[in-house]
Amino acid sequence: MAKVLSIVLGGGKGTRLYPLTKERSKPAVPFGGKFRIVDIPLSNCINAGFRNIYILTQFNSASLHLHISRSYNFDSFSGGFVEILAAEQTPVHSGWYEGTADAVRKNFIHFRPQNPTHYLIVSGDQLYRMDLADMFRKHLASGSRLTIAGTMVDRQTANDLGIMKANRDSSIESFMEKPGPTKNIDEFKLPQEIRPIDAAPEKEYLASMGIYIFDASLLEEALSNDSNDFGKEVIPDILAKEKINAYLFDGYWEDIGTIKSFYEANIQLTDINPKFNFYDEEMPIYTHNRNLPASKLNYCTLNMALATDGCIITNASITRSIVGVRTIIESGASLDGVVCMGADRYETDREKSSNAERGIPNIGIGSGSILKKAIIDKNARIGPHCRIGIDDLPRKNGEYETHYIVDGIIVIPKNMTVPAGTVI
Q1: Who contacts 206 (Cβ-Cβ below 8 Å, separation ≥6)?
Q2: pTM
Q3: Are 71 and 207 part of one and the same domain?
Q4: Residue 125 belongs to domain with CATH number
Q5: Strands 306-307 and 381-382
Q6: Does position 90 have pLDDT exceeding 70, yes or no?
Q7: E strands of 11-116, at which residues?
Q8: Which of 10, 214, 247 is nearest to 111 (CA)?
Q9: Distance of CA 205 to CAs 18, 134, 161, 185, 193, Å?
Q10: Phi/psi-derived region of residue 262, left when phi > 0, alpha when psi is between -120 and 50, beta in every other case
């Protein structure tokens, strides 16, 4: 009987998501108001019935540990688990993970006792909902020892991804990692016979999603050398020796590894018909059950907005924005295109009195403040009458006293205090 062991890759520093990864690992970054990025791949695995899951990480893992321990507790009858494996020193390995493949190799000591027949390897920073059970069935039917999930992309998007040349039988003939804009890749265009019917005309190339199903024996063989990266080394080495199967995924998929893509993926959730749908009872996205009260909205105007659990919003105007858990928004505030991650706790009356005495704002958005095109990280204190992203000011990427600017997006980091009347 097949036994699938799922591995979520989240070991990178997440430098492209900095400063959101300043104090947390990339998989632990809040998303969609109440979730964490890691909830997406974990939920896809769980919905497919693959409930033996390891998360590989090595940077700022405390927040991720806390989230996993609070959120993913299986009963004793299911036999499931979600565990974090941070980089560790052992008699065999003493260094950091040198790449995605190296991270897997260094943890075989933990994987082998599970005696898996197959490994499912997924990325920890992608937004998608896939029937991984269907991918596994087609992997078994293909007779291949490796299946790679692929999605259709246009030529520009193909520059920064691994591109696969697939034959009419869905086998992969060749693989090219990040071809760049100057490389001629016309021969990699997907054959019409296996092209998804509803694929956009400009999407002619099949890109690796970084989702793999390995027979256990093949993964052991492939990592018995010094290869450190799946896309650059492991996949080309296997392709030179044996058949690899391609699994075509024609649903929504987005890499949310940069501040720009992270911001846009969040804001798109406010669309009337969002590309990624959290409202799917058949394949839900799981997260920490906080048992918070319903949000309280007092004399507010909300348009294309998401207000998550436990918020208190008074006399505010909110447009195309996400209001994260426990967010307090005071009277007269206005948000337009804002991703607000919320707070980890409510402040007590005594703490608020102390804040007033010390001249610092409470956690949340102060009265009369106007915010546009910004990411407000957790526990940030935005004072009254601030103007963030409103005025036509020069905005050069970089780090500033109260904020960062990345790709033209203002980011207020976690626990930051923005004094009353600040203009950014």
Answers
A1: 150, 151, 152, 153, 163, 164, 165, 166, 188, 190, 246, 248
A2: 0.92
A3: yes
A4: 3.90.550.10
A5: unpaired
A6: no
A7: 30-31, 35-36, 52-57, 81-86
A8: 214
A9: 30, 22, 10, 9, 14
A10: alpha
